Structures are given as structure tokens and as C-alpha cells.
Amino acid sequence: MKNILIIGAGRSATALIKYTLSQAEKHNWFVTVADADPEVAERKVNGHTHGRGTWLDVMKPNDRRDIIERNDVVVSLLPAHLHIKVAKDCIKYKKHLVTASYISRDMYRLGEQVKSAELIFMGEMGLDPGIDHMSAMQTINELREKGAELQAFRSYAGGLIAPECDNNPWHYKFTWNPRNVVLAGQGTAQYIESGHYKHIPYHRLFSEYETIDIPGMGEYEAYPNRSSLLYRTTYGLDKIPSLLRGTIRCKGFCEAWNALVQIGLTDDTYPIIGSKKLTYHQLVDGYLRRNDGNSTLKERVADMLKIEKNSEVMKKLEWLGIFDRSKIGLSKATPAQILQHLLEQKWKLEPKDKDMIIMQHEFDYKLNGKQESLVSTMVLKGNDSVDTAMSRLVGLPLGIFVKLIMLGKIKATGVNIPVMEEVYTPVLKELEDYGVVFKETKK
Amino acid sequence: MKNILIIGAGRSATALIKYTLSQAEKHNWFVTVADADPEVAERKVNGHTHGRGTWLDVMKPNDRRDIIERNDVVVSLLPAHLHIKVAKDCIKYKKHLVTASYISRDMYRLGEQVKSAELIFMGEMGLDPGIDHMSAMQTINELREKGAELQAFRSYAGGLIAPECDNNPWHYKFTWNPRNVVLAGQGTAQYIESGHYKHIPYHRLFSEYETIDIPGMGEYEAYPNRSSLLYRTTYGLDKIPSLLRGTIRCKGFCEAWNALVQIGLTDDTYPIIGSKKLTYHQLVDGYLRRNDGNSTLKERVADMLKIEKNSEVMKKLEWLGIFDRSKIGLSKATPAQILQHLLEQKWKLEPKDKDMIIMQHEFDYKLNGKQESLVSTMVLKGNDSVDTAMSRLVGLPLGIFVKLIMLGKIKATGVNIPVMEEVYTPVLKELEDYGVVFKETKK
């Protein structure tokens, strides 16, 4: 095997391309980076002797197949719904496939074909999903080998702004897909506590957050993800009494975000009529039913939320500009799209801003008749707004896994997520060289 | 024209069949009542000389077409999604069609074919939709003819229990489709107030109800329907500054229903795992995040709702049985299905119970430079749990309209709802003989 194909050269590809080129040089491989915008691809390869940037319109089957046929391992950083086209070509030409996306049902259905072609299609090989699977499985398996009986597993992750670059009242900036942040938690969060299923509807999710301690970092807030039960069977935790996956935010975030939910501004199900010419002030006014004629918009919002008009939440809302009389300027936009548009201006990473990823797993277990708790924490900061921790933590696991395939170190075949020892051990080991270290603390 | 076909002989057909048979006798017509259960059909026709009950499986195209071909006007009381099959046969055999259901897009698409066959397909010809359209249009057109400039139109309706039969703390019983009551308001309510669009998300809908006065009846609560804007153009109200359609409930209902919404019990989007063996107590517990270990379930619910544990709302919840330790007994049920199952036992009409329909339109307008308001109110009670006001108010408009077609009094063709003068004037006039009287009050 000599040739690696990376499809997609966007923001999340930077760390992956850099790592893969350096490995290519070492092992005498060749890396092709293909993108709809060939200049972006070429800029990221930057004249490297073991790589080239090229143009690819992934919707053109012949072009796609030509380039896949000439490589051995394919990494797809395309939008998730496009992976399946690449996957089918990979089966046809017998190429391995790696992505950082959630594995779709369609992809799982290819499992038998992938197996009989003796290929591996690895999905969820980034940060979350990705490093969360690997680090959790490593500790779970270690505990099991010791004979521990797991009673609770709580896993939290958050993409945040580093404290030294935190200069806004929300203590948050966008370090990843803003749309996912705006729509986060919609539906009903489900998890298990002491053997009972818990359901927290969206309209209470952000008011009933919990406070968690991140060793060395202090207190943060966490709210349960929409489904904590997704990987119960995959992790072998079908009988665990307590299981929760949650999202980490800085203190004060959840209560203020809840205000936006309560007003109705995260709703993505209908467009606001005439949104382009409305002001933010008018938009918010449209969510308030009662008007005694004597109160300001801010007073009415505070009143509806049953909070003080000078509270921290109201200050955060005001800072966002939702009471401003400036025009929204977006046509036929849903409330969520309008909110995203506003937040993208307010929560933008400045060039020198460093992001910060926190991931923490908490395990309660019984070992030799004793009740024990273990906390495993990883904190990583980026260098600036291009070389982000997020880009490294998504790109490096992909790159390392590609290397393992190229070196023939992966025996597994079929459609997988990285929960097997032959994958997580070498990947987590090498990630440590890049500062990705999980520190264990006993509670 | 001699023959009338009524498809469906269920609960909502009683008043329609009775009325149509009496008209058939008078005009020497013949009424065929067809149902999947021929005994029900025969029982309702009850040996009348001008009618017969018969079996029909509406999913069998040949049977359906045979029976439609032998009639002149068809009334379909089938579930709404089945009307379209009947409609296509009606075009083929050139038969008129009448239903009480909302007109679907597919039905509207038949408009041109129906027109060129010189037929009328009338939908929304029951109570709500039905009488609401007719009574509103009559007053709107009268006001317009006088030269009034309409500034606000608010229309409210509710199917309630008559005060003399009201013997539960919710002051509510099911007089119509329970599922619709449980899911009412889901989504975002939209209306217009003083020229501005208003959006009230579901999680605030029942806490921000308004209080309305029903002349002669006292105060009731009303919450805005999901879309008040649906008939804006049809009613010719495109430029009206305030437009709202709402649902009427007795005082105290909305705040208590809001408690069920806040807990999460009206959610119909996911099944509760193991619902059959759970108790109601366990179900509700699953919606509560925090447990200090010292509080009862009731105390924790009151705490989450931020209300007193001895409040009226808590008494209503307790009366429903949601804190009981009895088994739910329903498999794979959504929270909404479980709640419906419980409510069907608690809110059941007793044989002698009388239901009560309230419909009220409120108009604000300028006439001759003066600001005026007009309130038009209809209140009708049923006789018992079979001869309900609901069944009469759905069946009589259908029956009267069928008579008008049979007598050749309808000139309109195409797919319609009853907003034209040639329909609403004679229908509303005759409804008065049955006690359906709108009383006008000036505010």
C-alpha cells in the first residue's frame, strides 16, 4: 500500500493533512488531497514532496471512482450524507475507508460486503465521536479485567474557549459547527440513573443542568445529551445502573441559554415571515404575549422568564443584541437561523483565540467489595483560531488510524467504530505525544 | 336526484342520519348508510322506510364504486385520509361529496376536475371546522356591507362538559377525539396582534392563556390555536391587524395542563421503554432529574413546577392518578398515549352527562368614525352522552347542506369550504330551529 486519499480540505482537515504528509515522508507514501476547491487543497499540501492537492467534484461518479481506484486508503471529510457514495466505490475497488462522522444505517448495511471484501470501514474516528469511544473503552476494559463491577458511567465533553481568551459574558465562542450548537438538545434527553430511565424534555434541559468538577479546572455545567443510551450495547454496558453522556459548558451558560429556549429563539421548524426587514427587537417582541403598554421589551422578557431585569441572564441576553433595533437582514429564516446568524458575529473566534476541549469520564464501580470512583480527564488547548484543539483532536485520530492501516496493523474488517483494543491502544498511545493525555483521579 | 349515501355510521353520524332520514321521508328520497359494521348501520337506520343500513369495506374499490354509482350525493365520515379515494370515485361517477374534515392538499388538487364535472365537493362542513366558518363569514360580510373597517377578529371554540354535569376538579371531560385533546397545541402557536406576528412556543402556551368572558356564562380560559392565520385569505382578512383563533377551557384547566406539558407527559415522539410494567408513579419519577432522597414524588413535582404542594394544580394532578402506584399496562406507549389512556378513564362521559359547545367570535371595527366591538356567542348543550351537542353540531350542518344540494339550491362548483353566502345563510337559518343560535352582544 502506497497511496492515501483525503477527500475534503476544509477547516477540519488541517491537522489531518499535516500529520498524514509527515507520515508519508517517513514511510514513502503519497497523499492526494481532493477538494471542490483545488486551491484550498494545494495550499494545505503546500508543495510537500509526498503530496498533491487536486480538484474533485464528488458528485461526478467517474471522477470519484478514478481517484478512489488509484489509492489504497480513503479518508472522507465530506458532509456525512455523502460518505455512502464514497463507501460504495470503496467496496467496488477494494479500498479501506475512514471517517469522523456518525455511522449511518445505510453504512451499517454495507457491513457484510465490507467484511467479505476484507476491508475495514471505520467511522466515528474523530473527537466526539471518536476519542470518547476509545478512552472510555480503554478504561472500561481495564476495570473489567481487574474484576470491577461497573455501576455508573458518566461521560462529558465540551468544545470551549480557553479561559485566557474568554472575554465575553457567555464564556463561550464557536469552535465548531454553530448550527449544531444552536440546535443542541432538541428532542428529549434520555439516560439511566440507578436502573431507571430518565427523560428530560428540551424545555427543561438547560434549567436542570448539573454542576461537575473538572480536576484542575474548577466547576463547569453539564446537560445530558439527547441519547446517552446509544452506545450502551457497543460498550458492553447493557446492565449498568447509571449511564449518562453530557455536554460541558462554563458556569452561567445553561441558565442563559435556557432563556433563549424559553423565548422560542432556538426553534428551527418554521420561518419568520418578513424576517429580513424585522429588527431583533421586533423578533423578540413577537414571542411575548402580554403587553401592558408601560413596560420595556427587556422588562417584559425578564417578567416572562420570572427573573430580575438586572440579572446575569438578562445581561447576557442584552450583550447578544437580541433587544437591539438593528435589522436581522436574513430572508425567510427560522428563529434558530436568525439566532445562529447573530451568535456567529458575537461568538466568533478572534485570530489569536485559543479553543479548549474538555473530556471527562466518571466511573463508579465495586472492586473487591469496595466502592470506588475514578475520574479520567483530558484538557487540550489550541494554539490559535486555525490550529485549534478541535481540529487536532478530530484530525489526529483519523491520521493515526490511517497509518495503522497502511502499516498492516489492523486485523478487524467490516464497518466499525473504534471500540476494539487493537485500535484504541495504539491510537491513544500516539495521541499522548500530541498532548492528548487523560489524567486519572480517584474521587 | 333521489339517493343519498352516508359512509360511516359511528358516533359522529347519529344526528346526521336522523336528520337525513327525516328529510328523506319529507322529500321522498332514499338514504343508504354504509359501514364496515353493518349492524351499527342498521341500528342507526332503525327500520326507517326511507333508508337502509349496509356493509361496506371502503378499501375494496369495486364495492365502493358500486355503491357510490347508485347514489347522487355522498357524505363521507371516514377518517380524513380515506376521503380522497371516495372523492376520485365521485368524480368518475359524477356525484357530489360532503365531509366534515379539513380539506387536504390532495383534495384541493381535484378542484379543476370537480368544477368541470359541475360537481361540488364541500369539506369542513361540521362544527369546527364548519359552523365557525359560516358564522364568522356571515358577521364579517354583514359588517363589511355596513362599511365597517375590521380591526380585530378573535374566534374561540371549545367542547366542554355542561356545568351541571361537571363533577371533577379539571372541569373537563372528553366529548370528542381524546388524542387531539392530548396533542393540542404542539408546535408553535401563531397569530397576529396589532399588525405584528406573534409566536408562542408550546412550552409556554398553557401558562400564558388569556381569560375571556362568555356572556351569560362567565369567565373561561383560552389559548391560541396552532395556526390562526390559516383562513386569513379565505375570509378576506389579509390586512386585518389582529387575528386569533383559540380554544376555550374552564378556569384552572390551562395551568394544570401546563403542568403535564412541563413534566413531559404530552410528548408523542418516543415510546417509554418497558411502559407496560411501569407504574404511573415510576413514569413521572423518570421525568424528574434531581432526587435529594428525602422528598416524595409529589413534593419533587411541585418543586420542579415551582408551585405549592397543596395547590389546585397539584390536586388536579393527584386526582388524575399520575402519582399512583398502579401499573400502566400499555406496551411500547409514548408518554402521550399513556396520558390519553389515563385520561380516558378519568374524563369519560357518564351516560347521563351533557356536553356543551361554546363558540364565540369577537370583532373590533371602525364604523362611521366610531370604534365598535361585537361579540357573537353560541352555547349549546347535549341531552346525554349519545345525543351530544358535538354530534348535533357536526351532523346537522352536513345534513342541511346535503338537503340543499338535493333540492338544487347550490350553484357553486369545485372543492370548497362553507364561506359563501348561498351556503351559510340557509344552513345557519335552519340550524336556529335546532337551538344553534348566535347571540350578539355589543361590548
Description:
The structure is a homodimer of 443-residue chains. With 443 residues, the first copy, chain A, is α/β, with parallel strands linked by helices. Chain A is 35% helix and 23% strand. Chain A has helices spanning 14-27, 38-45, 61-69, 83-93, 105-109, 111-116, 131-146, 178-183, 202-205, 253-263, 280-285, 297-305, 312-320, 335-346, 389-406, 421-432; strands spanning 3-7, 30-35, 51-55, 73-76, 96-99, 120-122, 149-161, 188-193, 196-201, 210-214, 218-224, 242-249, 355-367, 370-381, 414-416, 439-442. In chain A, the strands form three sheets. Chain A has a seven-stranded parallel sheet with strand order 3-2-1-4-5-6-15, sandwiched between helices. A seven-stranded mixed sheet of chain A has the order 10-11-12-7-13-14-16, covered by helices on one side. In chain A, strand 10 and strand 11 (218-224) form a beta hairpin. In chain A, helix 7 (131-146) crosses helix 16, helix 10 packs across helix 13 (312-320) and helix 15 packs across helix 16. The longest helix of chain A is centred in the C-terminal third of the chain and has 18 residues, at 389-406. Chain A starts with a strand and ends with a strand. The interface between A and B is medium-sized, with 29 and 29 residues.
